[in-house]
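Now for one record.
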Amino acid sequence: MSNADVRDGDVLAARAPAEFRRGLRDAFPVMLGFVPFALVLGSQAVQKGFSAVEVPLMTGLNFGGGSEFAALALWTSPPYVALIVAVTFLVNSRHLLMGAALSPFLRHMPRRKALALLFLMCDESWAMGLADARKRGAFSVGYYLGVALCLYLFWIIGTTVGALVGPVLGDIERYGFDMAFPAVFLVMLAGMWKGPAAARPWLVSLVVAGAAYALVDGAWYVPAGAISGVAAAWVLARP
């Protein structure tokens, strides 16, 4: 990162409150999109035996919607902890690539600060933070926190509400709330579209996950899609 980039970052840091509000404003539509599948996740967790206290602990410590849904799909009594941990790692392994994409903008930061920012990273905050950094030529910590922190807190609150109201409403998937999860990701992926070549790992992951879902019992389609997608991104990456 050049000295000019660092100076631009210092200017953005000086405008942190305004940048935070800008991030909050941009995150608001995504926060609304979180509502349906946060309720679904909280409701499903209660059906699996989680309490209304354990649900926010799970969603707060493992801030990754896909891996949380995968863990619930594999949850049994007693749970196979090693399997759930392995699948969670595989599903969240995409964060390795996401963090690598952000690393050029974080190199000038102290490691503790950078790791704290990455803890709050989810697919939506990563995409919005990276797009903003590329557009402005510098990474705005205030903007990123406005997006990431608000999405993090809203996700915990939403899943907790789902755990509380789920037993009252019954199976809330019958209202179509579960469709919000793929809808948000499709919109996010559309905004990141860079052409067919860059989308090849997505296609590989989709085909492998679909085949595993059709041919193998259980939730093995989740790690199958995750592993194949990461492997395809590695193999097909340009030098």
